């Protein structure tokens, strides 16, 4: 039962949309450490990884260990170089290790990079937290489209459906204030057009 509890905590942690490539690797490494038999499926060279060289490079950049990049890894992330940004070095103290006893497997994995200092170093790469590490967002979108295009809405025009899905997916970027502003501007435009027609 404890095995299922451990793996469930990892599965739930992987569902977070803000999970980075480094987070996922930490989670997998913790699972491998606890259950070595999973290495073939979750290891750095597992078949589920599309490009292990690129992934390794991204992990090193996110950790602030760019000096450890191999020549092949440097080539893979050439397009991600960007001026200079600030990276924070993360380490783990003995006290944190002692406090791990009551944590789930996922919490232990993600706690390893807790900040214990404010030491920073310049990075030649852009912030790579935007790189999506799992397909969760796509799967959620597929589910939402299934709910949106049900038997009662089969006559919805494709263009309208795409617009609805676009707005729903990006709902954090707009709100009622934006709608009111657009409606108001459209009404003002119509009034101006009517006035021009009357004058002419």
UniProtKB/TrEMBL annotation:
Highest taxon, organism lineage: Eukaryota
Protein name: HAT C-terminal dimerisation domain-containing protein
Source organism of this protein record: Nitzschia inconspicua
Lineage: Eukaryota, Sar, Stramenopiles, Ochrophyta, Bacillariophyta
């Amino acid at each position: 039962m404890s095995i299922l509890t451990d793996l469930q905590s990892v599965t739930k942690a992987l569902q977070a949309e803000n999970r980075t490539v480094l987070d996922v690797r930490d989670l997998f490494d913790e699972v491998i450490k606890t259950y070595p038999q999973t290495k073939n499926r979750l290891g750095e060279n597992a078949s589920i990884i599309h490009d292990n060289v690129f992934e390794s490079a991204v992990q090193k950049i996110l950790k602030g260990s760019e000096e450890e990049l191999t020549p092949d890894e440097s080539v893979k992330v050439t397009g991600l170089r960007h001026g200079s940004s600030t990276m924070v070095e993360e380490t783990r103290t003995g006290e944190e290790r002692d406090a791990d006893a009551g944590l789930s497997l996922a919490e232990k994995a993600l706690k390893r990079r807790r900040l214990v200092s404010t030491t920073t170093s310049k990075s030649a790469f852009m912030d790579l937290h935007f790189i999506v590490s799992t397909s969760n967002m796509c799967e959620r979108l597929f589910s939402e489209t299934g709910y949106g295009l049900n038997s009662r809405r089969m006559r919805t025009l494709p263009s309208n459906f795409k617009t609805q899905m676009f707005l729903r997916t990006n709902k954090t970027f707009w709100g009622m204030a934006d709608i009111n502003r657009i409606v108001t501007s459209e009404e003002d435009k119509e009034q101006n057009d009517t006035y021009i027609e009357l004058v002419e």
